[in-house]
Amino acid sequence: MASSLPKPGHRALRKGRGSESGRIYLVTTTTHRRIPYFAKWELASRMSAVMDRDDTWLPHAQLLCWILMPDHWHGLVQLSDATSLSKVIGLAKGRSARAVGRVARPSGQIWAAGFHDRAMRCDDDVLTAARYIVTNPVRAGLVTSIRYYPYWNSIWL
Fold this sequence. Notes:
Elements: H1 9-14, E1 24-30, H2 41-51, H3 54-57, E2 61-68, E3 72-79, H4 85-104, E4 116-119, H5 126-134, H6 136-139, E5 152-154
Antiparallel strand pairs: 1-3, 1-4, 2-3, 2-5
Helix pairs in contact: 2-4
């Protein structure tokens, strides 16, 4: 007999989870249906410009490092006030999607609903996480060195 209960979805993943001011989070979000919108230079450049702007994040958070891949985005985000991580990521995804939409008008939505996050603990090595994030294109075989990949940034440069 099939269950009549609805599938939990992304909201259920965040149920009971909070956001802490000052906490650093490793965040991953994917494009809608994992469509590689950002394999196109024009879209990737526009998206990168928006994600790299301080006013995309401030005053609620600081983006410590990030990388834009053809079908997803990773970042280390440090919350700076009592605003939830969900709100901060929602604002960034909305601003970036509007910027890309003005350039290319891809059909449908840009970002998938929801995101994955992991709160960095005191003993976590934030620099190790940052290195993992920015070397993503090398591991994916897109480039042989991160210096050949233009869609990333880090406060540790």
